[in-house]
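One example copied in:
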Amino acid sequence: MTKLWKRNYGQNTSDVFSISLISLFMDNNKNYIRKIGSDIHSMSFIIGAGFSKNISDKYLSWGELLQDMIHEMYAKEMRSGYMNEWEIINKYGYLGIASEYIRRKGYHEAIDVYIEQRTPVLICNDEEGKYDLKLGKEVLKDVDVSLHRTLLNMKVKNIYTFNYDNALDVYRDLTYTSERARKIRQSDSNLKQIDKLQSKVASLKSDLESLKDLSSEEYKISDLKEDLDKRYEEIVSNPVAQRVYDFQDCKGKTKKEILDEVYNATSLYRQQILESVIQWNTHKQDAYFVVKKSGDITIGDARRNIFKLHGSLRTLDIMDEHIDYGFDYDNHTQYIIAQEDYDSYNQKHEAFVDLMRISLLKDAYCIIGFSCDDPNFLLWINWVKDIVDREAAANKEENFWNKYFINVDNEELDPDKKLLLHNHYIRVVDLYKVYPTASDRKERLLAFFDDINKMQTAKSITNDFWEHFDFNSNNSLQEKNTVVYDKKKIDKVWNLTKDNPFSFLSKPFEYYRFYFLERIRNVIKARLMDESICKSFLMAANQDNLPLDVVLDDDEVAYISDFVSSVADISLRDNYKQLTDEGKLLDNEWEADESDNTAQSVLNQITQSLFNFDFEKCYKLIKHWTPQSQYYQTIRFMIQASLRRKVKVEELENILTVHESHKYNNDQEYMVALELPLGLHEYFWGDKNFNAKSEAIQSKIEEIVSKNKDVMRLSDYFTRLQKELRKEEKVKPLGRSGRTMTFGSSDSVTLGAIRLLQVLVKLGFVTRNMFARWFSNESIYRIVERLYTFYPYPCLYLASQCTNKDLSRRVAQLYCFSSSKAIQKALPDIFVKTLRACSSEYLSEERKNTLYIYATAFIKCVHPKHWKKEFMTLYKRQNLGNRNEREFYETKYSFAQQAVVYMNDASFSHEIIDSILDKGADITHNDNVLLIAATKNIKELSKEQIRKVYFLMNNTKNEPQVFILFNMRNFIPKRKFYDWLEHLDKKLLKSPSLILAVCHVARQCKRFENLALSLLEESDYLWSTGINEQDGHIVVSDTLSIDVDTFDRDIRIIGDAEIKAFNLIKTELALLEKAQRSRFYEDCFQDWSTEVYSMKLFLVRHYNTFEDSKEVDELIKKCEHLYFRISGQNNLQEKLIHQESYKVEEGITELMKGVRTYGINHFLLEYEIIANLIMQHCTQALDMCIRHFSWAVTYKKYQKFFVSHNFQTTVLLILHVYKPYFMGKDMEEWNLNVDKNVVETNMIKMNKWLKEFGLTDSDWEKYKPVFYYKEL
C-alpha cells in the first residue's frame, strides 16, 4: 500500500497521512456547516463584538473599549514603564478595571456615558435605504451592513448578543421593538382619527359649496352660519389638523381653500402612516423582536427574538429629550460591565439567566465573534455541562453536540480554548480550512453565510426579489422597452439558487414573478438582453415551471440560446441547458450526452424511457445506476419498486430511514426525499415495519414544516397547482375549436396543467402510487386533456399511472379522436410502443390492462401496417389465444379479438382457427369469440380444418363446442351441419343464445321448427326475470332471458310453446307486482320495463289466438301499469328524451321490438325525436341513437317510410351538423359523447343512402375515412 501511495502521489506515507488528516478535518468542517444550514431555522446565534467589526473597526472589543479608561486611571504605572495595557488588564481584569472606574467616579452613570461616547450608532438613511455610522461628530456614510442583514434574513430561531450597539436592531424591515409595536398600534388609531377628520372636512366643504345658492342676507340671518363656524373651529382645533397644517400661515385664504389644503395635507399624512403600517404587516411575521427587558420575554417559538443580554445602546440623537435609562428594570445600571453588575446579575435579571440556561441546554447554537470568556456565559455553560454530563452517560452522546463555535481567524484556536469548548460539547468550525482563498474574516463569514443560504428554499431566497424590477409603462414594441434592476441583488440570488435543483419548488403563482415574465418578453423581443436579465429570466421560468418555448416564441428562444452561448459564465449555460433539457423531455426530443454521467442525466434517460413505455431500457438504466446523493437514491429505489423488481431489505431500510438533514443540500431536498417514500405503501401493504417507518417520516415532515415555514411540501404544492385546474371556464358552444398555446394567450388552467407536468418531469415521475396521494383522477384528466396535443408522450404516460378504467377509456378517446396533426403523426409510434410494453415483465397486469384499453381505441385509427408485426409477437408472448378464466383483467382478450379482425390477415386467422379446433374438449367460450373474429378474414377452410370440424361434430361434448360449430356452419356443407344438429343432444342447446341460433337455422330449414319450439317450451329462460318467492319472501337473482320478440319474428310461436309463454306471463307479472310492493324493491337496481314491454308485444301479436280476450286485455293493461310503475315513463317517447343513457338505450331496444309488432308507421314521432337528439348532441346515449337511426333509414324494408316523411332533409342536416368535426381548416375538437369512429362510419353510410336520391353532401362524398372501424 505504501508503494502504491508513493507511486501515485510522489509523497511519503507521512505526507499522505497529513493530507488525509487535512482532508478529514476539512470534511468535518463541511459537514458541520451542512448541519448548521439544514437546521438553520431551529438554530440560535450568539453574537459578540467581533461580529460588529465586520461593519467597521470603530466597533471596539472589550479590551479596546477599556483602553482610554486604563490610560486615565493607570497613567502613572504606564509612564514609568512598569506595566503596559495588557499587563494591567491581566492584573486587574476587565471587570475590576470597570469597577475601579465607577468607584473613582462615584456613580455607574459615568461608565455608561463612557461606553456611549465610544460606541458607534448605526443610522438608517430612509431616503436612500442605506446606513451611516455615527461616532460623536464623525459620520461614515453608506457602511456595509450586508453580513448583519444576511444573518437576520436567514430567519434563525433567536439571536443572543452581549453587545451594547444597535448593529443588529436598527433594520426596520427586519427588527422591531416594543416601542415600535406601540407606535404601529398608535398608527392604527391615527388612521381612524384622520378618516374621521377628513369626513368632517369633506362634509363642511360640501355645505359651504351649497351656500352659493343663498343670498348674503339669507346667510347672515340663518342659523346655518353659526353652525358652520362652529364646525370650522372644531377642525382648526383638531390635533391631527394642527400637526399637518400651519393655520397661522393662511392669511388671505378662504375657508374653502384652507379646507382643501387641510384635506390634502391629511391625505398625505395618512398615506405615510399607511405605508408604514403596510410595511409592518408585510415584514412582521419574519421580523425579530428586540428584547431589552425581561418583561418582553415570551414562552414558546411564536416569534423570533434578539436578546440584548447586557444592555442596549440608548437613542442619543436628540440630547435635550428625556431618554430612558436602565437595563431590565434596574434604574441604576444601563450596561453590564463591572464586577458588581455581574455579581448581582443572577438576582436582578433572573429571567434572563433562566432563559439562557434553558436555551443553551435545549437549543442548537452558532457562536460568532464571541470569545466565550464572558463570566455570565461561563456560568451558564458550566450549569449546562453538569446536566449534559449526566445525560450523556445514559444516552447517545452525539445528540448533545449541537453547538458550533465559528472560528473566523486564519489559524487554529489556542489549545486551552479548544479544550474549553470541547468539554462543553461545542464543536469548532474552522472557516479558514473550508475557504482557504478568503483573505480575511469578513470574506470567510460571507462564504460561510453563502453556503448556509444555498441550503435555504428558493421561496426564502427570492422573497421580495421579483418586486424590485421596474419596467417602463410601455407594453408595445413601438417604443424602447427597458427595465431597471439591482445587479448585485440578481447576482446574489443567482449564486444562491443556480446550483439548487429544487429552486423550482418556489411559491406557486407568484404575482410579481409572473408579471416579470410577461414584461421581460418585450425586453427580449427588443434584443436588449444582458447577463443579469438572462439570469433573472431563467430563474423566473424555472421557478414558474414553464418550458422556454411556452414563455417565448421560437425566434426568441433562438436568441436566448445564441446569447447564452456567447457568455463566459458556465453556470448560465448549465442552467439554460437544464431548462431546455426539461422542455425536450416533454417534447420527447431529448438526446442523451454519453459524456454526461451526472445523476440528473441518468434520470432524464430513465424519464424518457418511461415516456416511451420502454420499461426494459428503464430497468437496465436503473440496474446500473449508483447515485451518491440520498435524494437520487430515493428516486432510483422508487422507480425500481414500480418496475416489479424485488428490492433489497437494506435498500428499503435506507430509503425509509429518517436520515440527518445535513446529508441533503437543503431543507427542500430533505422534504422531497422524505415525502416520496410514503408512496411505497402499495408495495408493502400491511407491513408493520413499513407503517412504523412511515409514521416516523411523517413526524419528521411535520417537524421540518414547523421549523421552516418556507419549505414546500409536495402535497401542498400540488394541491395549490390543482386549484388552478378547477377554475371555472367561460361557457362555450358545443364543440370547441382547437387550442394553440402561447404564454401571453394561454388561460390559467392550461398554464397550471403545464406547471404540474413540468414539476413531475423534474421529479422523475417516480411511482404511480404517489399520484394517488397527490392527484385526483379528475386532475390527471384535466392535465392530459389540456396538454396531450402538445406533449403526447408524457401525457399518455402520466395518464397510464392511473388505472381507473373510465379515465383510461376517456384518455384513449382523446388521442384516437383528436383532429391534431401532431397526434395523428405520433399515434402509430405510440401504439406500437404501448403494444411492446404489454409484454414487459416490468409492468403489472393492472397497468398492462390500462395499455390494452388504449390499444383498443388506437387500433381504430392506426393502419395495421404499423402494428401488425408487433401484435403477432405480443399474441404469442402473452398467449392471448388461451384465456385464463381466473384472470381478473380481460381487456387484453377483447383487444386481441378486435386486432385479429382489424389486421385482416388470412394466414394468421387460419393459425388461430387451427389452434382452437385442436383443443377439442378444452374449447372455451373465449375461443368462440376469437374464432368469430378469425373467420371474418377467411373465405374458406382448408381440407385439414374441415376434417377437424367433422371430428368435433362427431365428438361434441360441451356447450362451447356447440357454439364453435354453429359459427363454422357457413364453411361446411349445410347437409352435414343439419345432420349434426338433428342428432345433437338437446341438453347442449339450453343456452338462450343457442335457442335463438336454432331458431335462425329453422327459419332457413323448416324441419328444425319443432326443435326450436320445444327448446323454447322447455327452457327455464322464457320470460325469466330472476324473481322468485320463497317462504313468502321475494328473492331476486341474476338470470338470462330469451329474446322472445326475435324468436317470434323468425318462427311463429305456436302450440304448447305459445300456451307456456302465455301462462308464464301471468306468473311473472304477478311476481313483479309482489316484488314492487315489497320493501326491498327500492334497493333493487334491476329494471324489468323492457321485459314487461316485450310481454305486452307478445300479447298483442297473439291476441286472436287466445279464447279469453278479456283476460288478455287485463294482462295488457297490467303490463302498461307495471311498465309505468317500474320505469317511471308512460311510453317510449319519455324514455328517449331521458337524461340517463341506459333509459334511452332501453327506449331504442323497445322501439325495435315495437316496430316488429306494430310496424314502423306507428313510430314516426319516435324517429323524429331520435333525429333531433342526434342533431343537438343532447343525449347521453348518442352512440346508440346514431347507430340505430343510421341502420333504420338505410334498411331497405323501411325505406318507403322514411322517404315518404322526407327524412332525406333530416339526414342532410345531420351530415351538416357533424361535418365540422371531420373536415375543414378549423376542425372542432371531439367532445361528443360517442366514439368518433362510430359517427364517421354511420355518416358515410347515410350519405351513401342519400346518393340514391341525388342528395349527397359533396364534402362527405369526398371525405376519406380516418378510422379502420369494423364491427365484431
The chain is about 60% helix and 5% strand. Residues 979 and 1139 are 51 Å apart (CA to CA).
